[in-house]
Structures are given as C-alpha cells and as structure tokens.
Write a structure and sequence with these properties.
seven-stranded parallel β-sheet; three-stranded antiparallel β-sheet; about 300 residues; about 20% strand; alpha/beta
C-alpha cells in the first residue's frame, strides 16, 4: 500500500499519473481539510472533492476545481436574485456537496467520503485528515482574512504577515495507514496550507519517521508552480526554494524530487536529504504525470 498526502491542485495532478502506473486500490489518499467550510448552505471540502473528481475522471483539469463540462444554472440564478456566491459552484459539483452535507449529518465526514468514493467507482481509500472543524486565518496588511476571502475575493494579492491554524485530531485510520504503507508520497501541494496541516496532526510526523517518504517540491527556482505558496513560506521565514522544502520535511524525508531547472540546488538539497532526484516536475500533460509517477514508484525500496 502507498499513502499520499494531498491538498490543493498539485498532488491531484500527480494522482492522475499514479493511478495509471499502480493499482488504484493500493492507494490511500489522506486529504487536507483545513480550508473546509459552509458556503450557500452546503459543506465545501474543495481538496477532498478535487481528489474524488480526479480519481473518478470527472475533474475539470483546466481549473483543477469542480467537474468538467459542468453547468452553472443554480449559481447564475442565485446571482440574479441577489444571493451572490463567493465560490462559483457548478450544478453537478453542488449535488456532490449537497449529498456530502446530508451524509455528514448522519455519519460524519470520513464515512461520507467513503460512501461518495464508492458511488463514484473509486477503488482508492480517501481519508479526510480530520473529522473535526478546522480553520485557517491569513494575517495580511489589510487585516485578518479567511482563506477563501484571501484566495478568491482578494486574488491572493495582500501581503501575508502570518498564518494561524486551528489544532484538530487526526481522523481514525490515518496513523495506521501511514505506518502500514510501503511508502508515503507527499505531492507538490502548497507546503504551508495543504501539507503542513496534515503534518501537524498528533502522531503523523512520528509515523512518517517509521516509513519511506518521498516528496515532490512544489517550488521551482524561487517561486511556487501555482498558488500563493511562496507568499506563505516568506511569511513564515522559510526559504522559498526546493532547499526550503527539503528543510521543512527533513526530520522524516528519505527522497526529494526537484525540477530540472533546480539542478544547481541538488548539492545543497543533498546536504539535507540523502537522496535527491532531478527530473521534470511540470505536469502539463498525462505523459508527464505518468513519467513523474513512475520515477517516484521506481525509487521505493
């Protein structure tokens, strides 16, 4: 079994490749829940839904959010009648969120994800990092913002001064899944708001020390491949580079995969992590995703 720590859009791209080169039933995907919240009366777990849609081949892989070829009749009507939405939720996507909201009331988030994954024909085990409500506040030069306000309303433009996270407990099965894994893959997701919330769960870092861990750097040069990761890293005084990523994960990481453009950083990264693989990490087509997945799988002992 292989466990994957996922959040945002970087890791789901890698999942597209992984599910082509390994049996999806051998994958356990542990997903960030820090940004989950209620919008327009439904529970929005964007990172979980992105994984569900990716593993069921439904993902809108132009935006890496929502369902491909979705319609927006409900969203547009809400705008027309004076109920504007911060998030642009498609109709099929909204149906998924409505069902999840109803299932959660009866079973909780973990079981709701299991039911939805099964209904979508997904063989992989998808586990939310926590069943508990979590929260993140972005401290900026214009005040303290909720994550989605910062990301969507303000288009990630404000200067980030600090980040505040709530502490939650891991969902049942996460620690055991990590310990029982042949390897754990940390995808190229935002290291601060997508991966660090999972790492901060009680017992996760210690469990990672007991298994083989590979991470793909989401930073090339001195900037993130996508999203505001570099802003968040700067705010926390973490070097914005693949070397900074190596330092962030150094207490448990066995292998780091960095991009060809960071060849000059290999020696420095090697002083932190024993094995550094240099290859193309830009996943702009399925072949590139499969190639990166194969490189990762090949280095598992």
């Amino acid at each position: 079994m292989i466990s994957v720590l996922s959040g945002g859009t970087g890791t789901p791209k890698l999942l597209q490749g992984l599910k082509e080169v390994v049996d999806p039933s051998d994958l356990t995907i542990i997903v960030n829940t820090l940004e989950n919240d209620y919008f327009s009366g439904v529970y929005v777990s964007a990172d979980i839904d992105t994984v569900l849609y990716t593993m069921s081949d439904m993902i809108n892989d132009e935006l890496w959010y929502g369902v491909k070829n979705d319609t927006f009749i409900t969203h547009d009507r809400l705008e027309e009648i004076g109920c504007p939405e911060l998030l642009r939720i498609g109709d099929i996507d909204r149906a998924t969120k409505i069902q999840k909201t109803q299932l959660m009331e009866k079973y909780g988030l973990k079981k709701a994800c299991e039911i939805q994954a099964r209904n979508m024909g997904i063989a992989s085990n998808i586990i939310p990092m926590s069943e508990e409500d979590s929260d993140i506040k972005i401290v900026t030069d214009i005040g303290e913002l909720e994550f989605h306000d910062f990301l969507i309303k303000h288009q990630s433009n404000p200067e980030v001064l600090d980040l505040k996270f709530s502490n939650v407990n891991p969902a049942e099965g996460i620690i055991q899944s990590i310990k029982n894994s042949q390897a754990v893959i940390i995808g190229p997701s935002n290291p601060i708001t997508s991966i660090s919330p999972i790492l901060s769960l009680e017992g996760v870092r210690n469990a990672l020390k007991e298994t083989f861990v590979i991470a793909v750097s989401p930073i090339i040069g001195s900037d993130s491949v996508s999203g505001p990761a570099s802003k968040f890293m700067k705010a926390l005084d973490i070097e914005v580079s693949s070397v900074g990523i190596a330092s962030l994960y150094k207490d448990f990481l066995d292998v780091i995969v960095i991009d060809d453009k960071d060849e000059d950083k290999k020696v420095e990264a090697n002083q932190i992590i024993n094995k550094v693989i240099v290859t193309n990490t830009i996943m702009n087509n399925l072949d590139a995703k499969k190639n990166l997945a194969e490189i990762i799988i090949d280095c598992i002992p």
